[in-house]
Each structure stands twice: as C-alpha cells, then as structure tokens.
Design goal:
55% helix; 4-stranded antiparallel beta sheet; 5-stranded antiparallel beta sheet; 355 residues; SH3 type barrels
Length: 355
C-alpha cells in the first residue's frame, strides 16, 4: 500500500467530512485515472477541434471542466459507499445530488464554452442530440426522479427491510444510488434493482414493523376443517368439556357456551378466540379475528388473523409455529379434524380392507 493511499484511507475513516472529502480526492484509482487520460482528454481535444478549430483556449476550459466533474463524481461515489456503511442518510442523498449537479453543470459549461447558444444551427444540433440522449437514457432519468422522490419523502433508507415482489427480493437495503438499489436478501443473495421500479411498481417497507413501531407482525393462517366431523355435541361430550379433562378448554371457553346440542365447530372457534386473547405473544390491536371463510370442495376454512408482538424473524416464526401446533392439538378435544386429500396408501387401504 502506497504512502498516498494510507493517507487517503486514514482521512476517509476519520469521520470528519472535510478530511473525508480530502481523502477521497487524493485516493488513487488506476482504472479511473487511465480512463480520464486515454478517453476524456482525447475526446475533449476532438470536440474542440470540431467546434472551435485553431483555438486551444476552449480546450483548456473544457479540460478543466472535465477534471472538476471527474473529481466530484469520484469523490461522491467513494463517500457514498462510506456513508452507506455508516447509514448516514443525509450524506448519501447529498452525494447523489452533487453527482447530478456536476453532470448538469458540465452540460451548461459545454454550451457556454463553445457559445452554442449564439449559433442557431449548433443549438439545433445540440438540442436534437440532447433529445436522442434523453430517449436513450430515459431509464436513468426516471431513476433520478425516483431517487429524489423516495429520499426526500423518507420512503427508503439504508438498513430498511423491504420486499419487492416483482424481483422476488426480500431483505435489507445496503446501498442507494441515483439509478439502483442494492438489497441483501435473507437467503444471503444480493439483488440490484432499478430505483425507478420502486416508484412505478409495488414494494413493501417493513422497517417500522421490524422496529416495533406498529402493533406487531401479521400472522394469517387458514385451517381447512373436514365438515364430516361437524356435529352437535352430546351431553356426554359437554360434560367432558366442562369437567376439566382438558384444562385449556375449561379455562378459556365460557361455561355457558358448553351445553348439549351446541355445534362443536362453534365451540372450537369461541375457545380459540379466547385463547388467543389471553396469549401474551398476541396483540389485541388492530385486529384479532377467528372467522370462517367461504366453504370449498375440501371443507370449511377457519382463518386466524392476528398480530404477534415479537416481529423478529426467528421469534415470530417460533411463536407462529407454537400457535399452529396448539390449534391442531385442540381440534381433537372438540372432535374435529383437518381435511387432507387421500394419499396412495389411503386408497390402497380402501381397496384392500382385509389388510
């Protein structure tokens, strides 16, 4: 590592904006420097030769403008990476705005250096070229508009947990530029998405929920019950439910509901609602619903719609699984059964009952 590189990295890591800018300016980047020397300088000379033959002054102006824009873009791109790691939202936004301002300044400077605005023919050619460039880079322009909209309205920040169904992306935002958003998915893959798609299409920001700023994380489970098991309970079954044989039933199901002739599916739904209301992991807001859905050819679906207080991924999935297991276990107490399509083994048993 060269002495200059050490100084640059030390200043960039200092945390002070002035030193970070200085460090990013002096940091050596061979590929970027060679591109400037062998691409930008000859291109500037060629443009000057065409638009202002025999005059080297515009070339010096244009070269100085190119150098200034190159340094600004180089500096802002480097600092954007640093600010992204530190989740410094304001710094990221201003770096991207500075890049956009530098590009616009270059266009204005180009017009003024070669006095294009004074020559109708040249202005017309420049306008047509600008229109063609605008058509070619329309996605980039849409990205700039989307960046300004999303950042200024605080709809997207570094570290946010977002889902983009169109791209099957689900994870944490790692970087935001004028044109792209980089997402580290929970399966450890990385998705790079055009930022314009986040404005034009649907995306979900779950950060407030993950930080506990909402009522919790939604749990929505549907259990299809076999309607052949639905029946009014007998006096013997009512006595068994009241007797405390199943402690959870006697604790959470009101005694006045348990009576001969009551539908077992109705008692199960009432029990489940009261059990969820008493569960310390379940929020009472904004909704806690246990409802029957529209019957289909498989049976009658029972949906549990609730919000769990702990929204952290592992904890949420653990609590959701425990609730599911409890629901399945409680069905037997009421003489109910989940519907399951017959398998090959079921069919074989029916065909060969002697086995």
């Amino acid at each position: 590592m060269s002495f200059l590189t050490k100084i640059a990295k030390k200043n960039i890591a200092s945390g002070r904006l002035g030193r970070q800018i200085f460090g990013s300016l002096i940091e050596w980047n061979t590929a970027s420097f060679l591109a400037f020397v062998f691409l930008v300088i000859p291109l500037s000379a060629g443009i000057t030769l065409i638009l202002s033959p025999g005059n080297y002054i515009p070339f010096l102006y244009l070269l100085g403008l190119d150098l200034a824009v190159w340094l600004i873009v180089k500096c802002c791109r480097r600092l954007s990476g640093v600010f992204s790691l530190n989740k410094q939202e304001a710094g990221i936004t201003w770096c991207q705005i500075a890049i956009l301002a530098a590009i616009i300044s270059w266009l204005i400077g180009f017009v003024l250096i070669f006095h294009i605005h004074r020559h109708p023919a040249a202005a017309a050619v420049f306008g047509v070229a600008g229109s063609v460039a605008g058509w070619i880079f329309q996605d980039k322009l849409k990205g700039v508009v989307a960046f300004v909209h999303l950042r200024m309205h605080h709809l997207l920040n570094i570290g946010d947990w977002i889902q983009v169904p169109k791209y099957n992306a689900d994870g944490e935002v790692k970087a935001v530029t004028l044109t792209t958003v980089t997402i580290l998915n929970w399966d450890t893959t990385t998705s790079t998405i055009p930022i314009s798609d986040l404005q034009s299409d649907h995306f979900i920001n779950l950060q407030n929920m993950a930080e506990g700023k909402t009522y919790g994380r939604r749990m929505m489970k549907t259990f299809i019950l076999d309607t052949e098991c639905f029946h009014p309970i007998s006096s013997k079954e009512a006595e068994a439910l009241r007797s405390g044989r199943y402690e959870a039933v006697s604790r959470y199901l009101p005694a006045e509901e348990i009576k001969e002739g009551a539908l077992n599916a109705h008692l199960f739904r009432i029990y489940l609602h009261h059990w969820l209301m008493a569960n310390p992991n379940v929020s009472q807001k904004p909704h806690l619903i246990v409802r029957w859905m529209e019957q289909n050819e498989f049976g009658l679906p029972l949906q549990v719609y609730a919000f769990l207080l702990d929204s952290e991924f592992c904890s949420f999935e653990w609590v959701q699984s425990r609730i599911t297991e409890q629901i399945v276990e409680a069905m037997e107490w009421f003489g109910l059964m989940l519907f399951q399509a017959p398998s090959a083994d079921n069919i074989r048993i029916i065909k060969e009952p002697w086995k």
